[in-house]
Amino acid sequence: MMKDSGPRVLLVDDSATIRYAMQSRLQLMGCEVDSVADGTAALAAIQARPYGLVLLDCFLPDILGQDVARQVRQLEQAQPERPYTPLIGISAEADPAHVQRCLDSGMDGMLDKPLQTLAIRRLLALWCDHELGEEGEAASPEEEHDQDLARLFLTTSLHDLQALQQAREEGDAARMSRLTHRMRGAALTMGRAEIVALLECVDEALLGGPGAADAISLLLQSLGNALQARSLQS
Question: I need a labelling partner for 4 at 20 to 30 A (CA). Which of 56, 67, 198, 226 fits?
């Protein structure tokens, strides 16, 4: 007798590292997974087919996750025959005001990055009636992440760092903030606490104040050194 296919999940995140890691984890849980990198592609996917669950990054490069949620809810109101789409926001930001804005936009819940296996199991059970039991808890990042993922993390992080340095030279603080958010989400997923800490310091320095430009320059240099050191260890 054939086993029923698992729930179809849409994963929306602009970090290639997070998409790779989470798609692999969801597939191990028996899910059918589609993954996209921006809000435009997410809306197109949701319009094209029903999903049992959507994991939606809150800070996408083209459309905020909150705006994606609003458009999905508007689509459902305009087409009452459409099945309801559970939308779960995913973010490295966990302050109450941010969470409330996401819920007000039409999201059904929030998960902090890095995403925890047990939390995802509970969401699949709640929204998709997909029970997995409690066995097989998440491995540590070192055990869980294979060499391909580690190489992807380093490659994309170094690319983002180069873009971050260019944005600093151009004085584009908004782009710098978007890049640090994406890099921090990837570093959290990989369990790279030293890189997360440096990126949080960059975010604080972006708020301004005396010596901010010099501080950012030094922090980006330290970030590059940390990534290069990790590259040599791989």
Answer: 56
- Model confidence at 133, pLDDT cuts 50, 70, 90, reads low
pLDDT at 95: 85
Using the structure block, give the residue that is written with the tokens 């993390």: 153
How far is residue 66's CA from residue 224's CA, in Å, rounded to a whole number?
32
Torsion of CA 16, 18, 23, 25, to 10 degrees: 150
Domain that holds residue 103: 8-138
Could you tell me the two tokens for 30? 């028996």
- Report how far residue 190's alpha carbon sits from residue 211's, in angstroms, rounded to the nearest whole number: 31
Task: Assign residue 210 the CATH number of its domain.
Answer: 1.20.120
**Distant-in-sequence contacts of 156-165, Cβ < 8 A, 24+ apart:** 156/15, 156/16, 156/17, 156/186, 157/17, 157/183, 157/186, 157/187, 157/195, 157/227, 158/224, 158/227, 158/231, 161/220, 161/223, 161/224, 161/227, 164/202, 164/220, 165/220
In terms of domains, do 131 and 158 share one?
Answer: no
Assess contact for 17 and 186: CB atoms under 8 A: yes
Residue type, 141: P
Instruction: Evaluate whether 19 touches 37 at the Cβ level (below 8 Å).
Output: yes
pLDDT confidence of residue 207: 86
Question: Which are the contacts of 109, defined by CB distance < 8 A and separation ≥ 6?
Answer: 88, 89, 103, 123
Judge whether 78 lies within some domain.
yes
Residues 64 and 58: beta-carbon distance below 8 Å: yes
Pair of tokens at residue 130: 């997909």
3 state SS of 90 = strand
